[in-house]
Design brief:
By secondary structure, this protein is of the alpha+beta class. Strands 1, 2, 3, 4, 5, 6, 7, 8, 9, 10 and 11 form an eleven-stranded antiparallel β-sheet that branches. Strands 14-13-19-20-21-18-17 form a seven-stranded antiparallel β-sheet. A two-stranded parallel sheet has the order 12-22. Helix 4 runs antiparallel to helix 11, helix 10 runs antiparallel to helix 17 (440-457) and helix 13 (367-391) packs antiparallel against helix 22. The radius of gyration is 26 Å and the shape is globular.
Length: 720
């Protein structure tokens, strides 16, 4: 154990960064990594970056509603994050009559700010290294026994470091695939209000065409404010609450950026798997990614068809469509880049070195034999899992119907009225959310298409017993798309889940026969029980074996002599990390060179009146044509810089992260990566990896000149 801990300390504190790869724990930057940051241009001390005793940069960075990052930019709790992070709240506050999503919104006073129900922010208070404590408890255990004990222990530790009376919660994160354990302690604030958002034609300019692409011209930002109780503590929404007084907020620089300027990004990267094996890479290339992409294409086809017909439908489905489309393009690009960069072969080469090292070491020499057996056992069923999650339950109706298993279980197995009442009450809340977002026309088409796709692509031996034979008997030839359309018509026309009167009746008097005879529940249940009964146990076995082999593989890597020549850091786990690099263009292919910045000139060049992706708000276009950019103009270019790129290492979850200069000033918001490096979850590309950022001057211009919200500008500490 001591040898492993020494290796971990070396890794997080001594290896210098050869390129810009690295999502470093701010608590454990170490001398060599910090020195490398200073060599790049950093002017801040380590204590200014991270301290638990004094205000530091980490106190201005928040986990935004569990899926994005935000930053505090004023002493009154003002938050900047990405437009796509606030998209759901903006859409939820909109109506056809007052379409804030389309037209933008700017609160000119705090009283005009709109409560964003369900959003929250979390501040990181402390990080505790619990590796020794956890390892002592897990010593001698492996496989499912170790996994079960680890889950129990983490739950205990989470409770130990939490204090619900102060909205403080702890989450222990296993790092290095379960070879290191850190407790991250957070304080949550739940009263978050929308203070500003640009028109969608700014915040989502370029749509799916430009998503993951450079050059980019997107104003991907939104503005919120956090509130607290008068006692200074977190509190639920109340009109009596006051703006949050943060420990620290980021100054905002409008000096602009140039090539090779230092750039640092703080945030909450969601997940990477840089230590994935060749088996996992092959699985992604051959099965997971192409299956997911094909199924999301089906959903997007029918959603976009309906969104284009009706502004009300567009508003209703906007958030869902954006979410589906974002990772449809990502997984398509990821597969292509993994193939392009020959990642599978490179992983094999790394593993051969490990196997030679592991020879004669009982703990490690069987790692890849075990992995081979695990993948061989699961591979025949792995596509089935994707088709359940992204296909059958890609239909919102099917997804909701599947959750009603809990109600069925309470009725049939419990017999206790309190259990039934609780299950029905929870289902009723979920039903209300489902109905608000459900669009029958597109969902009906999705259901018909995914049922046919499942029938065509999944081994018939894995089909739910009797489902497709009944479909054939009652609705027609299984090779005919009309059969599935007839069935979908039947489901949507007959299900009480879409009838508010019948649903209320069911909630008042839950009846198993009524539920089981409902065509939507019956269909969802057939696929769900088939998977749960036959394939979920196999998946669980695979996950246990894969996790155990992955843990031992990385434990071995940490002990190999060659690790001294490598730079390692823990995979992203939605925990605070810092990456550092430079503002830098790149050359994606022969004879093509990309500058580090884009300007309003490029926005106007892409403009297409009335286009779904490239239209412009009239006020934006008017000011742009006049070159009315005020103090936000880039004097060298005599234009307004819209986006810029850096070579920082980020991933999903970093959306909204502050891009910070050498002096600790906010210069932009990270919001995307580039297509040429979409394999970044698995492998970092030193040559091509870029982070796309919205320039803070464009953000301020939109707030000030477009939105007229000088009140928000006055809150900021602007560095000129």
């Amino acid at each position: 154990m001591k040898k492993l801990l020494v290796s971990l300390v070396l890794i997080v504190s001594m290896f210098r960064s050869y390129a810009d790869e690295g999502m470093w724990l701010p608590l454990l930057l170490g001398k060599q990594v910090y020195d490398d940051m200073v060599k790049r241009g950093l002017k801040l001390s380590k204590e200014q970056l991270y301290s638990i005793n004094k205000a530091s940069v980490k106190d201005a960075v928040v986990l935004f509603s569990g899926f994005c990052t935000g930053e505090i930019v004023s002493n009154e709790g003002l938050i900047f994050t990405n437009h796509h992070c606030g998209y759901g709240a903006i859409a939820g506050a909109s109506s056809v009559q007052q379409n804030l999503l389309k037209n933008g919104f700017w609160a000119k006073t705090k009283a005009e700010e709109i409560p964003a129900d369900g959003l929250y922010i979390e501040f990181l208070l402390q990080i505790h290294d619990l590796t020794q404590r956890v390892e002592d408890s897990l010593r001698g255990l492996s496989g499912s026994e170790r996994a079960a004990r680890q889950r129990e222990l983490i739950a205990t530790l989470n409770a130990e470091f939490s204090d619900s009376s102060k909205n403080i919660s702890a989450r222990v994160s296993p790092l290095f695939k379960g070879n290191q354990f850190m407790a991250f302690v957070y304080q949550r604030y739940n009263d978050i209000r929308l203070a500003g958002a640009p028109p969608e034609s700014v915040g989502k300019y370029g749509g799916d065409t430009d998503n993951w692409e450079w050059p980019r011209h997107t104003g991907d930002f939104s503005v919120f404010r956090a509130y607290m109780g008068k006692d200074g503590q977190p509190a639920g929404y109340s009109p009596d609450n006051i703006p949050l007084k943060p420990k620290y907020f980021l100054p905002v620089s409008i000096k602009g950026v140039k090539t090779n300027d230092y750039a640092m990004i703080y945030g909450y990267p969601g997940s990477t798997n840089r230590y994935e094996t060749s088996y996992g890479v092959k699985q992604k290339i051959d099965i997971f990614n192409p299956s997911l992409v094909a199924l999301r294409e089906i959903r997007l086809k029918y959603i976009f068809e309906e969104m284009k017909k009706d502004p009300a439908v567009k508003l209703k489905l906007a958030s869902s469509a954006a979410s589906i489309a974002n990772y449809w393009k990502f997984y398509d690009g990821e597969r292509k880049q993994l193939i392009r960069h020959d990642v599978y072969r490179k992983k094999l080469q790394e593993e051969e070195k490990f196997k030679k090292w592991a020879t004669g070491k009982p703990e490690f020499e069987h790692v890849f034999t075990d992995l081979s057996k695990a993948y061989d056992a699961w591979r025949p069923y792995s596509k089935h899992q994707v088709y359940i999650n992204e296909g059958i339950f890609g239909s919102p109706l099917m997804a909701f119907a599947g959750t009603l298993q809990q109600v069925e279980r309470a009725i049939v197995k419990s017999g206790g009225s309190k259990d039934i009442e609780a299950a029905a009450g929870a289902a009723d809340k979920a039903w209300s959310a489902f109905i608000r977002s459900e669009h029958v026309v597109s969902d009906k088409q999705i259901l018909a298409a995914v049922l046919q796709q499942f029938y065509t692509d999944i081994d018939q031996n894995q089909h739910p017993i009797g489902f497709y034979s009944s479909l054939k008997k009652d609705f027609g030839d299984l090779k005919d798309p009309a059969t599935y359309k007839k069935f979908a018509d039947h489901v949507f026309g007959s299900s009480f889940l879409l009838d508010s009167i019948r649903w209320r009746s069911f909630v008042r008097n839950p009846d198993a026969n009524v539920l089981q005879n409902d065509p939507a529940f019956s269909a969802a249940n057939a696929f769900l029980k088939n998977f749960q009964g036959k394939y979920l146990p196999l998946l669980q076995q695979f996950n246990t074996r894969n996790d155990e082999a992955g843990r031992l593989y990385l434990k071995g890597i940490l002990q190999m002599d060659t690790v001294k020549a490598r730079k390692l850091f823990p995979d992203a786990t939605m925990t605070m990390r810092v990456s550092f690099g430079s503002v830098k263009g790149y050359e994606p292919k022969d004879a093509v060179t990309y500058d580090h910045a884009t300007t309003m000139k490029g926005v106007l060049e892409k403009y297409k009146e009335g286009d779904y992706e490239f239209d412009l708000d009239p006020r934006v276009r008017e000011l742009a044509l006049k070159k009315d950019f005020g103090q936000y103009i880039d004097k060298q270019r005599q234009d307004l810089v819209v986006n810029f790129i850096t070579n920082n290492d980020i991933t999903g979850g970093n959306s909204g992260s502050p891009v910070i200069d050498a002096n600790g000033n906010l210069i932009g918001l990270a919001f995307d990566g580039n297509y040429e490096a979409l394999g970044h979850k698995i492998v970092f590309d030193n040559a091509y990896n870029r982070t796309i950022c919205v320039d803070i001057r464009y953000v301020l211009w939109c707030i000030d000149k477009v939105g007229g919200a000088a009140n928000l500008i006055r809150e900021l500490k602007i560095v000129k």
